[in-house]
Amino acid sequence: MCLIIKATNPKTVSQSDLKESYTTNSDGFGIMFVDNNKIVSDKIKPNNFDQVKQLFNKYKNINKPIGIHFRFCTNGLTNIENAHPFKITKNIYLMHNGPKLPIPIIDNNMSDTHQFIKYYLKPILLNKPALIYDSKFQENLEEFIGNDKILFLDSEQNKFVIINEQEGNYKNDNWYSNTYWKKTNLINYHNYFSHNDYGNYKNSYLNEEEEEFEFNQDQQFDKIKSINSVQDIVDNKLDIDDLEILVRDKIENNQEEELAQFIHDLIYQS
């Protein structure tokens, strides 16, 4: 299930909370924060809690807001590549908490979060990174991921953005994405809002009128599924990631003859 902690600074997170979190989510550990307008990201596949503590203590004196992630593997291999955080763009990183995102699993070695970023979020946010502050985008993203939670970190604005914040809980000023790791009760989001000025920031950041945006899980696959010839590949300017999806789609749908025809045409038309 994983756990995300957004803390005001590392010193506000107790060693007992870290240990309890690791006990139920031991498949990966990572942190992210902004320093000198750049995102600092560090993650490991820990073999024991001492390794978690060692990495955490490396940054415990930074006195900056920090994102912390404990992974519980549900998809993909248990390795450092699938630990969080993940890079979306140069200035935006992400942590995710949820059993499985509603997307096709193209690479069984990589987690659903990795593939969600690669095929969905990255193509969108590379061109329009400010969408993470757009209320319409956030609403559609929340609807798409259900009860899952996402923590964005933007180095340009030095801001964290929580998707489905209301699904998490607070302990003092720190937000926890769930309570499965903790025996004692935390404060529900709905009872905690007086000190949180994120809504005011979100509205002030978007100076121009909100852009209509619909998060459609098929949007990145529409152009690929419409490919019927080598010329279509050229016309649609498919990149290597698009071609990987195309090949896997043809194989999974028993369309090996069409795939063979593509290869034949590519060889003899070039």
Largest sheet: 7 strands, antiparallel
| Tertiary shape | elongated
Q: Distance N terminus to C terminus?
A: 49 Å
**CATH domain topology of the largest domain:** Glutamine Phosphoribosylpyrophosphate, subunit 1, domain 1
Count of β-strands = 11
The percentage of residues in β strands lies in 15-25%
Report on the structure:
It is a single chain. The protein has about 270 residues and is of the alpha+beta class. It has two domains: about 5-205, Glutamine Phosphoribosylpyrophosphate, subunit 1, domain 1 (4-Layer Sandwich); about 220-270, no CATH class. The protein is elongated, with a radius of gyration of 20 Å. Strand 5 and strand 6 form a beta hairpin. The chain is about 35% helix and about 20% strand. Residues about 190-215 have low confidence and may be disordered. A seven-stranded antiparallel β-sheet has the order 3-2-4-1-10-9-11, covered by helices on one side. Strands 5-6-7-8 form a four-stranded antiparallel β-sheet. The protein has helices spanning about 15-25, 50-60, 110-125, 135-145, 200-205, 220-225, 230-235, 240-250, 255-270, and strands at about 5, 30-35, 40-45, 65-70, 85, 90-95, 150-155, 160-165, 170, 175, 185-190. The chain contains nine helices and eleven strands.
